Request: fold
Amino acid sequence: MLRRGDALAPRVKATLIRMYAIDQCVRRQLVVHGRNLEATRAQSDRAKYVLAVKTVLATDRANSARLKRLVRDYGWPDALRFGKRAECAALAIAVHCRDMRLMRLFVATLTRSFAEGRSEAWSYATLIDRFALASGAPQLYGTFLVHDRQGNVTAPRLASTRAATSWRRKWRVLPLSNQIDLYRRKLRLQ
Reply:
């Protein structure tokens, strides 16, 4: 198992951060082209939007395959060995994975890492919730929020607000009401 001081750790970390940067870049382009299409309904904007969707999907596939190799070689890219930024990058890539078998591998390795005290509680909860929602089950921790056009923010398909609140308190994670408030503020800034 790769340790924090190992020579490969900085290379793995840099790879994950690069993958995350690409992930976010293609998603920003998708948002831009989506807004343009919504505003104009022009055929040229539709073509750019469709291309942006295809780019996001291709990036997600490539990043998921690369993360799979990293996870198989080194285990979950946890904060203890690779730093918080690298774990957050791995989490974002895993969350965007559309292959359920592959996501199950990510869940299993992150669960092990969390149980061993190497990964952040927030990372664990986020991937568990994403996997649950992708599987058609309710989320447990309320880490995924959505908003409507009026700016109303909710945690969709939350199994139990009480259980999520209890978990957040136990692991010293931001209370759900505070997370919703932060999300609302972020929406107002966009």
